[in-house]
Write a structure and sequence with these properties.
Largest sheet: 6 strands, mixed
Strand order of the largest sheet: 3-5-8-2-1-11
Helix content: 40-55%
CATH class of one domain: Mainly Alpha
Number of strands: 11
Shape: globular
CATH topology of one domain: Cytochrome p450
Strand content: 5-15%
Radius of gyration: 21 Å
């Protein structure tokens, strides 16, 4: 994949128009949506375009083989991303109530504490990799606490997730391991509930299978997205001299930096999928009922930039990074992710005020996958400091932070997104 993603997506749109025929893996065809309007149309029209994988002809009729990474990731699950109608409403309400039931100030304290602890681990060295030592670890550890997992279980979770999202031969094994871990967690919380997401989902009346699948979605929809956002936002802050010198203490600048990344460096670029219930015409192509549509978040955002005057896009929140329509990312989940990203930026830049890039931006390496916009690493240097002498005082953090549900003061026009659903995208020949 080329590093210049904006030109990559523009090039595809120039050749194919609104929709491009692709392969998810050899023998698994799909349609990649490239324009803002077509992506939005498909996301909003849940009557014509369903999320339920039973509408996917090739998956439902066994054309996609059992050992396929695409099949492992897209098997029918009882979570809001995979169902429609009344079932979707029930599961969506459960997610909303589960997040609402959490002690919000405790959640913010946990995010802050994780960020502080991670900085403590490397602050005395004077150098660090902010992807491997910070951005990648923060969301996973926060999620572990929200799920009530211990450190060993968080490690198991990370390994299983990597296998599943690899999209390759290890995907079925990763899916099986994840199901065992999260189903057992649901059973444990049913027997001994606490103030955590699985307990609150159970209180809403969800089964162990539903809890397992909903938690899988929460993890998938948060971990990679937040990691990639933190990495790209830190890179932007450190590349821009004015931002680097003015962001300290400015929550608005940090918020706008995160929003800029959502629009210009979309952390999750594509997502399988939607499945038409009837034959439709999109772009230059006739698409049959049961075909697979791939949402193109990054391509849609670039199209939005190209079609909108610059002055209107500078601070726009009309991007599709979180999707839109009935399957948009739930507000609580979106705000939780943004709280993690903004806290990560504000914490490290206040602790390490002379933070600077250790190598020129043009040498930065990007993960060579079309589904995510992710840095491989982000080497930095700074003046060494001593780790904190003790944990942060919760009372102080409560006075400094807002409820994470209020951390985004301006409501974006659209908004679902989950994470890396597969690792391959092979273009078909244009008709």
């Amino acid at each position: 994949m080329p590093d210049d993603r904006e030109e990559f997506w523009r090039g595809l749109r120039k050749v194919y128009g609104d929709v491009a025929p692709v392969y998810l893996e050899p023998g698994v065809p799909a349609w990649l949506l490239l324009s803002y309007e077509v992506n939005r149309q498909v996301m909003v029209d849940n009557h014509t375009y369903r999320c339920d994988r039973r509408y996917w002809h090739d998956l439902e009729h066994g054309i996609i083989p059992a050992d396929s990474g695409v099949r492992a990731i897209n098997e029918k699950r009882q979570s809001v991303l995979y169902v429609d109608g009344e079932e979707h409403q029930f599961l969506s309400t459960g997610l909303h109530e589960a997040f609402s039931a959490l002690d919000q100030q405790r959640v913010l304290a946990q995010i802050q504490q994780v960020a502080e602890e991670l900085v403590d681990d490397f602050c005395a060295r004077g150098h660090a990799d902010l992807i491997g030592e910070y951005a990648r670890l923060l969301p996973l550890n926060v999620l572990g606490r929200l799920l009530g997992l211990g450190q060993a279980e968080v490690g198991e979770l990370a390994v299983s997730m990597d296998k599943l999202w690899s999209g390759g031969s290890e995907s079925p094994q990763g899916a099986a391991e994840l199901k065992v871990l999260l189903t057992q967690l649901a059973r444990n919380r049913r027997a001994s509930p606490g103030d955590d997401l699985p307990s609150h989902l159970i209180a809403h009346g969800q089964s162990d299978t539903q809890v397992c699948d909903q938690l899988t979605l929460i993890i998938a929809g948060t971990n990679d997205l937040v990691t990639n956002t933190i990495g790209a936002a830190l890179r932007r802050l450190l590349m821009d001299t004015w931002l680097a010198s003015n962001h300290a203490g400015s929550q608005m600048l940090i918020s706008e930096t995160v929003n800029y990344v959502m629009l210009h460096s979309t952390p999750m670029e594509i997502l399988v999928g939607r499945f038409p219930t009837r034959d439709v015409r999109l772009g230059h192509y006739s698409i049959q009922a049961g075909d697979c549509l791939v949402l193109g978040f990054s391509a849609a955002n670039i199209d939005l930039l190209d079609r909108t005057p610059h002055a209107q896009t500078a601070f726009t929140r009309a991007h599709l990074t979180f999707g839109t329509g009935p399957h948009r990312c739930p507000r609580h989940g979106r705000d939780l992710g943004q709280a993690m990203a903004e806290t990560a930026l504000s914490t490290i830049t206040s602790r390490l005020p002379d933070l600077r890039l250790a190598e020129p931006p043009e040498q930065h390496r990007w993960v060579p996958h079309v589904n995510v916009r992710a840095l491989v690493d982000l080497p930095v240097r700074f003046t060494p400091i001593h780790p904190r002498s003790g944990p942060p005082r919760l009372e102080q953090m409560h006075s400094q932070r807002r409820d994470y549900r209020e951390i985004t003061s301006r409501e974006p026009e659209p908004a679902p997104a989950t994470t890396a659903w597969w690792r391959r995208l092979l273009p078909q020949q244009k008709e």
